[in-house]
Every structure is written in structure tokens, then in C-alpha cells.
């Protein structure tokens, strides 16, 4: 069996290692450059590869193709493969049959990384033999090749879900759905929603689907489609006989005739959106019958995720916050909503079809100045030009941070929450966040 892998990044190289181990004839093809560290791994493992091109003779003779999530279905080589009837799948789909582990699959437009890390933290603290995979941690396929975990907590993007056929998580979470990545879905929101719900398409009556019961897109989809999995809702406002909710500043989780309660003030993560993430992760812990003391301890000592509302430094009584992971409007909404002081907002990057109108009332109420950090800021200026008094355009992170310092005064917050992808000026949202933190330390 010839396995061709498109993309020589973390998921591509992980799949190559697992494929080789399982006796496939493996070839890795990357249209860009492959990092030196990954090349070394491929060479050590005797796996053939190419970079800077897709050689048709070497790709189109595949029996099976694993495509990295970053490569769109519209790319010419993928179209050619599909026209020849060659199956193109994701790393998760390829690796899942090679492990007997119970998997928790987590998707959503926002909150999925925090929920994934918190769920992993809960399971690990409970002493379970658990791996962390998907968009965070080491590639799922690589871990299936090298480790023997009993559980996996996997963060799944819509792109990874687009490439599944038979994969079914034992426990699935949809944190929320809001317009994102619409450039990959023909600018049709419905296509993106359908993509997210692929997480439950193969689930059975023995499986669980945990979801936000106040999310319009989720509720509408569930009202029109049948789900076999057992539904476990969570909500900040509604109560359930089975599910998770907040009542009188207590988190209550009821699953399998068992109840767990905890005062919200002891939950380490701040903000309403993080209460939702905590309810989702705790629901998993309850399904897996983790002890209440362990859950309490884990929720009270969890440190959060880098680049997600991460407090960097306080300088001259101004708090600098790195929320570089906020690559869409919905995450910025949560960030601005949790601000309690006048805010200088650093925003901008590659727009993925954003509609900024839902931020209007928050921007009016909380934002005193906007620093636009991007190559093309027209949409942001058009949206907020009449809403805030001061708007400035910059083209580097150092400039953005220095400008924000000038515009802020004692008691203010400087918030990097870009609402956009980072690829115009940075390598990734992590690179953008690290540059922000460095620039703040240099002040």
C-alpha cells in the first residue's frame, strides 16, 4: 500500500512514522519547505520526501493520501487526487484504527484549546495514562506509533474533521460555533457548521456529545438533525436534570445520577467563557468517574493557556494582556467582555471574513483607543472609526506596543486581541504573542 502524505509538518511527519511502522510504502511531499528537525526524523526513519513541489508521478500513484489540515481542498493536487478517486483523509482518521484508546475529541470556534488542556490536566491529575494530541501537543499519529496510552484528549479543527470517514470519539465536545475560516467554506456559514458536527456523525448510543446549550448555531443544528450519542448540555443560565450549569455562583454537574458541585470562586480560570470550558471538561471527568477531590484540585490549580488572555506585565500600573490566540471576532468578544478597566486594543492581521458589528457595544463601553496592527486595516477603520476617539496604524509589534503605552494611563489595560490570522506580519499566532511579550518586556 502506497501512502502519500501532503505536508511535512507535525501531523505529516507523525503520520509518516506510523505509516512506516505499519508497513506502508510512505512518501512525504510538501509544496513549501520542511523544517530541518522534521527532515532529520524522515531521514533517520528512511522515509522518502520532497519539498518545494508536488511531483505528480510520485503523488498520483497513491493508494491513500493523508493531507495536512492547512492544505485546502481547492488546491490543484488535492483536486487531481479526488478526480482519480484516491481517498484523501486526515491524520486523525489514519491513526485512529491503530489504537484501542478511549478518545475525547474537542472542537469549537473558541475555547477548544483551553478545554482540551483543562480536560487533559484533569485526566492526568487523576493518574490516567493519557496523551494530548491534535492541534496541541504532539501529533496523534506519532503518539499512536510511539506510545501506548489508554486515553487521548484531541483538539480537532474543522479542517481535521473534514478529513474523517469512520473516526468516532467516545466523548465529543463542541464548545461553541461562530463564523470562522469562512474563506475555506465558500463563505457559507452553514458549511462550516456542518463541518463541526462531523465530530458526532459516527458516534453510537454508548458515546457522549457535550455541548453549549446556549449556542444558537448548535441548537439549530440539533433541532434539525438526529444524534445517536447521549447529549450532555452545559449552560450559564439554564438548569438540567443531566448536564452542567451555574446556579448561585456554584458549578453543578449531574451525570449518571451523580452530582458534582464547586464554588465558582475557586476555579482558577477567570471569565464567563472559562466557566463554560470548565463545565465541559468537568463533564468528561464525571463520565470517566474521576474522584470529586481530584476534579476540585485540578480546577483550582489549572494555569490556563499561553496566548489566551495571558497577563504579561504591569508597567506604571497599566496591565498588558496577550490574547494573540484570538483569531476571530467571537474570541475578541470574550476578551473585551472580561475587561474591567479602560482598554487600549491592539487588533488586526489577515481578515477571514470578519463581521465586527457584534463588538460595537463592547468597544463603545470599554475601548479608549485602537492600534491597528496589520497590512490592510481598512475594514477595522471603517467599522470603528466613528466609535473610538483615537485610531492609529502600525506595521510592527514594537511600534504597536510603544504606541499603546503612549495612549494608556494609570489603571488602563493594553490588550492584544487581534480578531485576525497572523500571517501578514508573523509566522503564527504564537510568534505574534511572543513578539508582544518581548516588546512589553523591552518597554
Automatic annotation (TrEMBL):
Its EC number is 6.3.2.9. It is an enzyme of class 6 (ligase). Pathway: Cell wall biogenesis; peptidoglycan biosynthesis. Keywords: ATP-binding, Cell cycle, Cell division, Cell shape, Cell wall biogenesis/degradation, Cytoplasm, Ligase, Nucleotide-binding, Peptidoglycan synthesis. It is found in: Cytoplasm. It comes from the Bacteria. Residues 307-420 form the Mur ligase C-terminal domain. Pfam families: Mur_ligase_C, Mur_ligase_M, MurD_N. One of its GO terms (biological process) is cell wall organization. Transmembrane segments: none annotated. Cell wall formation. Catalyzes the addition of glutamate to the nucleotide precursor UDP-N-acetylmuramoyl-L-alanine (UMA). This is UDP-N-acetylmuramoylalanine--D-glutamate ligase. It comes from Flavobacterium aquariorum.
